[in-house]
Design brief:
100 residues; mainly alpha
């Protein structure tokens, strides 16, 4: 059964897979976690993320929102670095123009 679950996992979202397995095989979340070789908390996190991605949860960022947040954080980091370089350059050129 584990091979079938892993194969289906590659093809579908984890949430859909878990829902189908729990319904079809009558597995509890703990049993399904053991079958997948992960902890029950990991399985819970995957379910929570799947629900957020489908718009069923508002308390968790969706995968798209997480990706956008990472992108914006990277952009902020670059902008801060650029600002620091510009501040140093401005200070350097200010010293150069003050000399006789």
């Amino acid at each position: 059964m584990i091979g079938t679950i892993r194969r289906r996992l590659e093809e579908r979202s984890i949430g859909a897979l878990i829902r189908d397995c729990r319904r079809g095989a009558g597995l509890s979340q703990a049993q399904l976690a053991a079958e997948l070789g992960c902890s029950q908390q990991t399985l819970t996190n995957w379910l929570r993320q799947d629900q957020a991605d489908r718009g069923e949860r508002q308390d968790v960022l969706s995968s798209e929102e997480r990706a956008r947040l990472r992108e914006l954080e990277r952009e902020v980091k670059v902008l801060r670095q650029e600002r620091e370089i510009l501040k140093r350059a401005a200070a350097f050129f200010a010293r150069e123009t003050d000399r006789p």
